[in-house]
Amino acid sequence: HGFYGLMEMLRDWMKTLPLNGEKADVGLNSAPNTGEVRVGLIQFSGKNKSGSSAGRADAKSTPPGTGTGGRLSGDFDELSTDVDWHEANYYGRGTMIQLGLQ
To answer: Which of 41, 62, 75, 91 could hold 67 in an S-S bridge, CB 3.0 to 4.6 Å?
Structure first.
């Protein structure tokens, strides 16, 4: 399935990044201008068709207490947990890139 391949490519890509090692709960980057980075993962889907969010794209990130909790992180283990969560919580339909992943 293309989505899982894409997520594993993201995990491999993050291994090559100069992550700054800071956990998500640090908040603001404590060591700016080092050339190191933090990453965040968000999964988008197509537009909602009803309710108060009708017409807007839906998005989800990891919930609080899981991996980064939907925040930026420079810690590979937190980010890897996010990848696992997104793989287990794939929208499965209506995603913006759905047709390209089939």
So the answer is: 62
Please state, as a whole number, how many other Cβ atoms lie within 10 Å of the Cβ of residue 75: 20
* pLDDT over 70 at 7, yes or no: yes
Taking all residues of the chain, what is their mean pLDDT, rounded to a whole number? 81
Quick check: helix, strand or coil at residue 52? coil
Tokens of 20: 């700054």
Q: Let me know if 36 is exposed, middle or buried by CB neighbors in 10 A (0-12, 13-18, 19+).
A: middle
For the packed helices 2-16 and 76-88, what is the interaxial angle rounded to 10 degrees?
180
Q: Which amino acid is at 81?
A: T
Q: How far is CA 70 from CA 31, 49, 53, 84, in A?
A: 21, 24, 20, 13
For 38, the token pair is: 């933090």
Is the pLDDT score of 59 beyond 90? no
Continuous segment of H or E residues that includes residue 9: helix 2-16
User: Where on the phi/psi map is residue 21: left (φ > 0), alpha (ψ -120 to 50), or beta?
Assistant: left
Whether residue 82 contacts residue 42, with contact meaning beta carbons closer than 8 Å, is answered with no
